[in-house]
Write a structure and sequence with these properties.
- The complex is a heterodimer of chains A (250) and B (212).
- By secondary structure, chain A is α/β, with parallel strands linked by helices.
- Chain A has a domain at 2-96 and 167-245: Rossmann fold (3-Layer(aba) Sandwich), CATH 3.40.50.
- Helices cover 37% and strands 27% of the residues of chain A.
- Chain A has helices spanning 42-49, 79-85, 100-110, 116-129, 133-136, 149-162, 179-192, 205-211, 229-234, 239-245; strands at residues 2-13, 16-27, 31-35, 59-67, 70-71, 86-89, 167-171, 197-202, 214-219, 222-228.
- Chain A has a 6-stranded mixed β-sheet with strand order 6-7-8-3-9-10, with helices on both faces.
- Chain B has 212 residues and is mainly α.
- Chain B has one domain (4-205): Methane Monooxygenase Hydroxylase, Chain G, domain 1, CATH 1.20.58.220.
- Chain B is 83% helix and 0% strand.
- Classes of the chains: A alpha/beta (250), B mainly alpha (212).
- Chains A and B meet through helix 8 and helix 10 of A and helix 3 of B.
Amino acid sequence: MAKVDIRNLNVWFKENHVLKDVSLTIRENAVTAVMGPSGCGKTTLIRAINRMNDVISGSRSSGELFIDGKNVYDSNTNVYELRRKVGMVFQKPNPFPKSIFENVAFGVKIHKMATDKKLSEIVQTSLTEAALWDEVRNRLNDSAFSLSGGQQQRLCIARALAVEPEVILMDEPCSALDPAATAKIEGLMRSLSERYTVIVVTHNLQQAARVSDFTAFMYVGQLIEYGDTNSVFENPKNETTEKYITGKFG
Amino acid sequence: MSRLLDRGLEELTTTLLKMGDVAEKTVRTATAGFMDGKSVSDDVRELSELLLMMTVSVEDKAFELIMRYQPVASDLRIINSYMKIAYDFERFGRYSLDISLTHQKFAYSEKCAYAWDLMETLIDKVMLMIRTSIEALKDNNGEMTKSLAKIENEVDDMFSAYLDKLSKAPPDAKCTICTALVAKYLERIADHATYVGEAIYYIANGQKISLR
């Protein structure tokens, strides 16, 4: 079932036409990987889903982007609510300068989603879902910065989960992590896809092959190929995709 | 600039093409020995063992390339198919050895002459299939492999008809067993030649087809 339906999406940053007529339907409860060379527009594409591009000066867009059938670019869209529904995890772990507990509770408080009593329960659930609870349960008041890089990234995932999102966008979430921490995040992506729609931008082809159900390949702002991951990596339909994933570019 | 993987693939291709030539030579030696009434099992055994070693070499190299480069798309299809083809070539060798050992065990008999035309035709067809599959491999030509299906059907039909004939009026026990077994080995070699063709088609087109 489609969760995100992108139709003829164009994005410009001032005169720079970054996304060119992209149409893509993203399946619910699956991991979709978006890959492509630097500057191809993959980050812009996922930032379009929760309208994070709006905060960039000089950005404009055309086309439609539906989540559960509602166009998020409609003028009456509540952007704050949209960003609660569509959480984001960034390339570099970016915990707030607060305790582990407060990092997870932060969004819940902002959105006034729970009483103090309920808050502890949400924090525990979110940390458990992010596969971090067992490692931090006895140090919830410690600074988030006391955690390792991989733990910080899982904390950021827990923070995103706490506000009950439906879609989780991940922008190169493992690029700053070692292989062990990467493996944990990748396992997490798979388990999260049972409840959430996960969209991950990655430079790492093997990571896309490992974790995703569907793969989109972008090149110079265009969607070149999109299909189930096995097909894209075994027998890509497009010659540019073949050249990119086999390292024959240039 | 060529990729590091390309060097490995080149090495793998070279080994596999050499294997193809050895496999063809092995079948030719065994079948010629059979037709000429000469014992060639030592030569065939040596060639068969060489094929076995080359198969191991292809597998080792293929695993190394997978481990080092995590190939995908056409690179992965090539490596996967080359491993299969190496196994098929190794089977050519094994069945050739079976042919020469069967011939040696039952010895050449004048009474088998009635089967010679059929055996000669079978051998010609199998050798044509082997040559076609090796040429297709050299040229990476998926379309060329399609002709294998027709010949393979002919081999199957001839084998089946021959068994029917033997079951109705067995002319000589030794000849019956010997020629039936050799025909079976040839039929299996033909099967493996089609498997080679299927693997080449997969490399070239990314589609798994059946030529049987």
